[in-house]
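Lecture notes, unit on binding sites. The following record was shown on slide 14. It pairs a sequence with zinc ion.
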Amino acid sequence: MDPQRPTAEVIVISDGRIIDIGDAQLAKAYPTAVHHDIGGAMLIPAFIDAHCHLSIVALQPLWGDCSATRTIDELQQLLEQQARRKPQAEWIRADSWDELVTGLMFDRHDLDAVTGDQPAIVMHSTYHQCVLNSAGLENLGIGREAARRDPLIVADDRGDPTGLVLERSAGRAHSASMRSYTDPDRWAEHIERRATHLLSLGITAVHDAACDPATEAVYATMARAGQLPISVLAMPHPDPFLTNAFGDRLDGAPTGSGDETLRVGPLKFFADGGAAPAFDVHLGGERLVMGYRHPDLLSELKLAVERGFRVGVHAMGNQGVADTVEAFRQASRVRRDDDHRFRIEHVGMASPALAREAVEVGAVGVVQPGFVEHVGRSAGEFQPDDASWLPFATLADAGLVLAGSSDDPCGPVNPLECARFGEHRRSEGIVFGADQSVSTDDWLTAYTAGSAFAGGQEHERGSLTVGKVADLVVLGEQGDGPRELSVLETWARGRLVHVADDN
Ligand SMILES: [Zn+2]
């Protein structure tokens, strides 16, 4: 990760840490050590997924999966099966609806026909919108009056909610329906299983980008019991989901507390929508302003920074990014932490000028190269004149530190697959913003040193340096064209935890 340093040939690990690094002669200085020859493969620090939702994606096996559901008939069958499979759950829940892939569109009446008066939710793959049945709407108190006040509660011609709700209301529905599935013991088992899968991809540390109080509690229980196979930086988030008011969480453990297994991360805020990102762009010369901006971002963010927390802000549209940069500028006047690093989560769209402003306020970009796949598919004709989608090269050229991440389950999770998307910028046969390509080698840096920096973890992980945690990945390389890398081995805290089948 450091081009200034000579290539090392031997790395010595003891008690889970790197204790020495050098050339082939170094091995002689440790005659009693166990030797492990990686046969000329490449050794790098293990990947840190700087924005994912491990605690949520772990539960997906409990929910109906409508990622391939194409018709209302199929959806109704899936919900009936789900109700039989989880008879104790208050909410019937299905996930991974994506109409851009499947063409599936429906409303509350389609759900009511099979769910009766039990609340039901079909969550979108973005987690920023969902469809509720009538009992679900009633459970959350969403009726005609709410739809009249909030344009993000979609209503029919008569003013009745159709069941489709976006952003804050989707967040409330997510939180309410989650509670049917978060028995702490079972939840911990599911997190452990998913974390073990991440090890096979070379990921030994994650930043869980939205941990409500129940999520923080389940992680704490797992860490105490030695049940966390990977390191977690838990970014606190209020309950309900997709809101900014932290309330008494500001009195709780601050960013940085904990240890290398489980640490409190920056607080997670939202500047704009995910289903309704905030844009202010020109399209074919015409100005276009649209999307949802959270009105309480600045006031809530300042409170948190004043109290000594670090922060990360979801910003997808260029207006969302601009609002975030402005909030950072104002919050930096009240910060207590000299070494603050303001995280922008996603940075979905920006111009070169906005990227430079982000650098000036000391921001870090926590980006998702794997988003090329679905943004490439959904953005279509929406190509502004004055800002770029997933502007990774623009951000890097401006000098912004990039951290690599997946936003799992909202994008592909495998870091090497994501790096390829970030390099080739191809989505279903089209090339999406070729000028924003960033090389696989740079993504390896983003997923290690960059992510460690975004998490304030650069003293413990993210590079091969004496004293750091021995979390390592051995990569094999095929062919001699564009890099085709694969994970051969994963080491966590000095222990070999994964070996590829064909290795
Ligand atoms: Zn996310």
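Take-home: Residues 184-200 form the longest helix (17 residues).
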